[in-house]
């Protein structure tokens, strides 16, 4: 190209190429939009044809794509073609009915439609003025949800509290921890003395948040849980840790209790923890990322009994509440504490509405300034299904988990390791008694190895996908039902797949004569 640089050669004529001629042309949008929706609908129809866990090797995509960006425009058709040939092989299919890994990512048509509106309007609703509907709809749906969950009045806007849609639980915990920290500092505490508590089952987002808000690493406590408590954090064990810290001159700041832990869906003892928290004047947050949604069903509501003692409560609507990523619902009793820690007031955002103090400016309830109009998808999801059907869907997933649990329990070679509360079953092949050495530790080690091989064998084949956890030193396989497309026939097939792989493995083990 001689002395020309890349920018000089961009100006080719676009006429007649089938390319998008303008960045926002309504008619082209209509045409390509229909095509894209058709493509996604076809994907949903055929998603179970792909291996659930992507089978590609690291770096696969760099080898397939050009090293530099195209100078000339390309057609949407070509791009869609490359999605099929290059991108889909590298997708792990979270929307597959055979995806049982991690926790579900329960997308839905209603949420998708709401997302389309949000992407279409493309507003940047940092404060009320920047798009009043974005703020007001969010406040309304957060109050709706608070009522669906029977959260105490102090979490509703009318009761002095309020809810906000964050992107993720990590952000929700970070914001509440920052609020707690600043409240403590305002009361005269020194940040180097503040202590944060969770259990050894608490999600790593608490530790990350503590690091970010400046809690010394040595002041982070992961209180031990026990198999005999089903890995729940108890008030007594929390109290022991808090009392010891106070005796050492430290200041208890924040405790994060979990409803539905990530490894095994354990439920911390909220009432006991709340009592300890209030006695020691700590901020109590409840992280119900996965299981919170189930609590809209009266029969599961007891899992959050004690929420009245908490300062804040969050759950991920993108996990098990039919909202596409991302959507974390956070409520606080005292929004002023959040605002004190997170607000900014630059001249270029000053406006009459804010000055009137009649409005919520959600930029002061979160980390970033800019924010998406997330409430549209939640509003669409709730309205398209109604609370009655949302409950029905959640109950259906719990029923699927019960079916799976029943199948595991019928097979003597397997065991369910911890109680199943929601739609996730933690199970494993039992330690192999035939090769009993008399040494339980060796047996456990062999069992862990066997279950690890079982899981890898199942996932490598790709008909279903599950992941693992280690609780109390025991390697467990997690079966998380709750995918939006999963039906009972999928669950029954999944069990057959697991048994097939297990039998092959057990045969191999016999040949090895362990
Ligand atoms: C998934 C999960 C999180 C993290 O959620 P993000 O939205 O990805 O930050 C936190 N806590 C629990 C209990 C979880 O299961």
**CATH domain fold name of the largest domain:** Aspartate Aminotransferase, domain 2
Mean of pLDDT: 94
Strand content: 5-15%
How far the N terminus sits from the C terminus, by CA atoms, comes to 67 Å
Supply the number of helical segments.
Answer: 15
Return the domain count. 3
The name of the CATH superfamily of the largest domain reads Type I PLP-dependent aspartate aminotransferase-like (Major domain)
Which regions have little confidence, pLDDT < 50, spanning 5+ residues? 9-14
* Ligand kinds: pyridoxal-5'-phosphate
Overall outline? globular
What is Rg?
A: 26 Å
Biggest sheet layout: 7 strands, mixed
In spatial order, strands of the major sheet run: 1-7-6-5-4-2-3
Q: Give the CATH class of the largest domain.
A: Alpha Beta
Pfam families: Pyridoxal_deC
Protein name: Tyrosine/DOPA decarboxylase 2
Modified residues (N6-(pyridoxal phosphate)lysine): 319
Catalytic activity: L-tyrosine + H(+) = tyramine + CO2
């Amino acid at each position: 190209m001689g002395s020309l640089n890349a920018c000089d050669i961009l100006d080719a004529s676009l006429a007649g190429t089938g390319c998008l001629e303008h960045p926002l042309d309504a008619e082209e949008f209509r045409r390509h939009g229909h095509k894209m929706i058709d493509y996604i609908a076809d994907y949903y129809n055929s998603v179970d044809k792909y291996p659930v866990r992507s089978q590609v090797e690291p770096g696969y995509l760099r080898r397939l794509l050009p090293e530099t960006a195209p100078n000339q425009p390309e057609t949407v058709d070509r791009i869609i073609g490359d999605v099929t040939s290059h991108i889909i092989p590298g997708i792990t299919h979270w929307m597959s009915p055979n995806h049982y890994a991690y926790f579900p990512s329960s997308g839905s048509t209603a949420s998708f439609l709401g997302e389309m509106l949000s992407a279409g309007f493309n507003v940047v609703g940092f404060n009320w003025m920047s798009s009043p509907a974005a703020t007001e709809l969010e406040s309304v749906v957060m109050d709706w949800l608070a009522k669906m969950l029977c959260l105490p009045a102090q979490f509703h806007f009318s009761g002095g509290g309020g809810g906000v849609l964050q992107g993720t639980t990590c952000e929700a915990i970070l914001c509440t921890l920052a609020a707690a920290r600043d409240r403590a500092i305002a009361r005269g505490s020194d940040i180097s003395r503040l202590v944060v508590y969770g259990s050894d089952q608490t999600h790593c987002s608490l530790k990350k948040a503590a690091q970010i808000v400046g809690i010394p690493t040595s002041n982070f406590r992961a209180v031990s849980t026990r198999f005999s408590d089903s890995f729940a954090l108890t008030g007594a064990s929390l109290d022991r840790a808090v009392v010891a810290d106070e005796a050492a001159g430290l200041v208890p700041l924040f405790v994060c209790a979990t409803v539905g832990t990530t490894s095994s869906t354990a439920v911390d003892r909220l009432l006991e923890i709340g009592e300890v928290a209030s006695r020691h004047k700590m901020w109590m947050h409840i992280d119900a990322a996965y299981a919170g949604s189930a609590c809209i069903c009266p029969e599961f509501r007891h899992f959050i009994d004690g929420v009245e003692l908490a300062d804040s409560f969050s759950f991920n609507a993108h996990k098990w509440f039919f909202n596409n990523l991302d959507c974390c619902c956070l409520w606080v009793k005292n929004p002023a504490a959040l605002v004190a820690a997170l607000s900014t007031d630059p001249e270029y955002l000053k406006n009459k509405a804010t000055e009137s103090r009649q409005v919520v400016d959600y930029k002061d309830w979160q980390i970033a300034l800019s924010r998406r109009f997330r409430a549209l998808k939640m509003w669409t999801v709730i309205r398209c299904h109604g609370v009655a059907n949302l409950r029905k869907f959640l109950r259906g997933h719990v029923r699927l988990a019960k079916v799976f649990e029943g199948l595991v329990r019928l097979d003597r070679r397997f065991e369910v390791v911890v109680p199943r509360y929601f739609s996730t079953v933690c199970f494993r092949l039992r330690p192999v008694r035939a090769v009993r050495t008399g040494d339980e530790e060796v047996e456990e080690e062999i069992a862990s190895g066997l279950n690890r091989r079982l899981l890898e064998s199942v996932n490598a084949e790709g008909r279903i996908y599950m992941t693992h956890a280690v609780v109390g030193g025991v390697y467990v396989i997690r079966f998380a039902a709750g995918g939006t497309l999963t039906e009972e026939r999928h669950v029954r097939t999944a069990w057959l797949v697991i048994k097939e792989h297990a039998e092959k493995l057990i045969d191999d083990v016999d040949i090895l004569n362990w």
